[in-house]
Specification:
Among the domains are: about 50-250, no CATH class; about 595-674, Macroglobulin (MG2) domain (Immunoglobulin-like), CATH 2.60.40. It starts with 5 loop residues before the first strand and ends with a strand. A hairpin with a 2-residue loop joins strand 6 (about 330) and strand 7. The strands form 10 sheets. The protein has a 4-stranded parallel β-sheet with strand order 1-20-17-14, with no helix packed on it. It is built from 16 helices and 28 strands. By secondary structure, the protein is of the alpha/beta class. Helix 3 (about 65-80) runs parallel beside helix 5 (about 120-140) and helix 3 (about 65-80) runs parallel beside helix 14. The chain is elongated.
Length: about 675
């Protein structure tokens, strides 16, 4: 028995559309998927291939992987492809293994934390808490949605036992508890934000609190995000209060150390003095801020021969993950802590300061949030983190993550945030994947995908995949399934989505519901399989279409024959088809190179003639089945000669789907009765 695709024809008046931009042709989403194998590694970590005691492994775990996890959330929000959530869960479980056993007597560096740094813990808690908030608050349908039963999603590392989660919500709840363990330690036991005056640990108290190393605003941004997300989800008013206090400290005043120079020229602490710390509003309506943020400023930084500089681009975007998270969502005393005005000023930071005009078609990128190219920080009178020079490679990567602010930027193309970063992607990253080699730049790539899908008429290409859980794929333009046309070396060995397969096939497994929507065209190429027992729907949705500048009054579907083979026949596959939109009321019959039979007249008043050609005219086994758009079979017949007539005069006027099946292939045509 053959499984039949349900095809829905939608008629809709389209009144708003705009011309397609050149940026829409960039396959950024496909690059993101392919590049994951290089930058992350799967199922093991490219970053985490050493033991937990190795410092570089810990740094990568806490400094890079959170951005990878956030990129998965961003990609899910953009595409609604649950493969990204599954990726998140796999890596989150592995990171819990690296974290250590919660019931052990080991010190905090391995018990409740991913390292001794609150900074590293805060970033990981940011990603974990965001996932919890997504599942439980933003998309509550995920809370009760079953996890794929045939994908291993349980923790097998021993100290958590054989804990298994049946739903996304069950995993999110487990992750919430693990995350709150870490937050509560740093908040209450270690003393960060134990009260409203302690947003940092002063230098002279470092010896008293072994975990007190994160003092800069950028190093507490992840911590603040986690307080906000879990404060909303649990709910926890104390978490939200502390998040609000951190937000106010972004533009606040703290008591800072005074400094006194000793006889040997060294500086030492001498009392305290108030100091304005975080952002400064520049004359071009942009925010700039010091790298120290509102952490204690070392005397050597303030008075040394190479003093503390303005924030660089990479640490700058880390500072901004908190304002981005709470934008228009968190108030204090009826005042929105970060509103649209703040977002515009941050966007101006990029377009007015960071952007350094074009060299040809390629934008120049300054390294500092103030437009400086000489950046050097000092810690304990030692120079670290030197990011000198225009178009520094680290700063170029970091620039991608600033795409978030394109919506708030008043500049006009090509000097707006969107155009600048898209042109930067074009000239620096589109054909140079090795230029993206850290978690933050990979996260930035997901921001670029999101912006492209929001602004452009995006296409979507799906490659090798075994679909074992419900999915809803969509594209404003063309949606193509092309498992047999993979040329990218990163795709040939395996697929992106779980379960990993090596065959060049796209298979919709039995028991799954898969919907494909496109504004222009859906193309299912050779290698596509929708198995019996699956529910596959493909249709043109003009509401997605923002591609054509001409108004289309009606959408029709066309079908392009793509022969299947015996292997497909034995696998209970569906016919392979192309769906696209036609602005005319009728489909004009055309001669396709692959066409080997003819249906005429089409449209007709109910009587259709079928003419077999070539080898098919001598086929001993051939049959015809005709279905209406509800998937109901209205006509079946064996073909006994090269010419045959079909009578549909007893059936209503409308569109029908004709399937011609021979011993070796299936061909689909649309026929119209007038």
């Amino acid at each position: 028995m053959k499984f039949i695709i349900t095809i829905i024809l939608i008629y809709l008046i389209v009144v708003n559309s705009f011309a397609q931009n050149a940026f829409s042709t960039y396959q950024i989403k496909e690059q993101f998927d392919a590049h994951e194998k290089v930058i992350v590694g799967y199922p093991t970590y490219h970053y985490l291939n050493s033991t937990r005691t190795d410092s570089s492994s810990i740094n990568h775990l806490g400094d890079r992987m959170p951005y990878v996890l956030e990129s998965y959330i961003k990609m899910y929000e953009t595409t609604k492809d649950k493969a990204y959530l599954i990726r998140f869960i796999h890596h989150a479980i592995g990171m819990q293994e690296e974290r250590g056993a919660p019931d052990s007597d080991i010190d905090v560096g391995s018990q409740y934390s991913f390292s001794n740094y609150m900074y590293h813990n805060g970033l990981i808690c940011w990603a974990f808490a965001h996932f919890v908030h997504l599942v439980k608050m933003e998309e509550p349908a995920l809370n009760t949605l079953a996890l794929p039963p045939n994908i291993i999603l349980y923790n097998s590392f021993g100290f958590y036992g054989s804990n298994q989660w049946n739903t996304y919500g069950a995993f999110a709840e487990w992750l919430r508890i693990r995350t709150e363990e870490t937050l509560d330690y740093f908040t209450y036991e270690a003393g960060y934000w134990a009260d409203d005056t302690r947003c940092y640990i002063p230098e002279y108290e470092l010896s008293k609190v072994k975990t007190a190393r994160a003092q800069s605003v950028n190093q507490q941004a992840g911590f603040a995000c986690a307080l906000f997300y879990l404060g909303l989800t649990d709910p926890n008013t104390d978490y939200l209060h502390k998040a609000a206090e951190i937000a106010k400290a972004y533009k606040g005043i703290v008591i800072d150390q005074g400094c006194k120079q000793k006889k040997n020229g060294k500086w030492k602490v001498s009392g305290t003095a108030p100091r304005l710390v975080t952002v400064t509003l520049s004359s071009n309506n942009s925010y700039i801020w010091k790298s120290a943020g509102w952490r204690i400023e070392h005397c050597g930084e303030r008075h040394g021969d190479k003093p503390d500089d303005y924030e660089d681009l990479a640490h700058g975007i880390q500072t901004l993950i908190f304002p981005m998270a709470i934008h228009n969502k968190l108030e204090s005393n009826d005042v929105m802590l970060f509103d649209d005005t703040d977002m515009e000023r941050y966007s101006n930071t990029f377009s007015e300061n960071v952007f350094g005009q074009y060299s040809g078609s390629c934008p120049n990128i300054h390294g500092g949030v103030d437009g400086d190219d000489v950046i050097a920080y000092r810690i304990n009178d030692k120079g670290v983190h030197d990011y000198d020079g225009l178009n520094n490679s680290n700063m170029l990567q970091a620039a991608l993550a600033w795409m978030h602010f394109y919506k708030f930027n008043p500049a006009t193309p090509p000097y707006d945030v969107y155009s600048i970063i898209m042109n930067l992607y074009d000239c620096r990253f589109k054909n140079n994947r090795s230029a993206i080699d850290v978690g933050q730049s990979y996260y930035g790539l997901s921001e670029v995908v999101k912006a492209q899908w929001e602004k452009e008429c995006n296409d979507l290409i799906l490659y090798n995949r075994k679909v074992v859980y419900n999915q809803d794929f969509f594209a404003k333009g063309n949606l193509t399934v092309a498992p047999a046309q993979i040329t990218d070396a990163n795709y040939t060995a395996s697929s992106f989505a779980d379960p990993i397969i090596t065959d060049q096939k796209f298979t919709v497994e039995a028991g799954t519901n898969v919907k494909m929507r496109a504004g222009t065209k859906i193309i299912l190429k050779h290698g596509f399989h929708a198995k019996q027992g699956s529910n596959f729907r493909a249709y043109i949705d003009p509401s997605l279409n923002v591609c054509n500048s001409q108004v289309a009054a009606k959408r029709d579907l066309e079908y392009e024959e793509i022969p299947s083979n015996k292997e497909n026949e034995q696998s209970n596959d569906t016919t392979l088809i192309t769906l696209n939109q036609n602005t005319e009321d009728r489909i004009q019959e055309t001669e396709e190179k692959t066409t080997t039979f003819k249906i005429y007249p089409n449209p007709s008043n109910g009587t259709f003639n079928i003419e077999m050609r070539g080898e098919r005219s001598e086929a001993s086994k051939a049959s015809i089945k005709i279905m209406n758009l509800l998937g109901q079979t209205i006509y079946k017949s064996e073909i006994k000669s090269a010419h045959q007539q079909i009578d549909l005069s007893a059936h209503p006027i409308g569109i029908y789907i004709l399937h011609l099946q021979t011993e070796n292939e299936i061909i689909t045509r649309k026929i119209i009765k007038e």
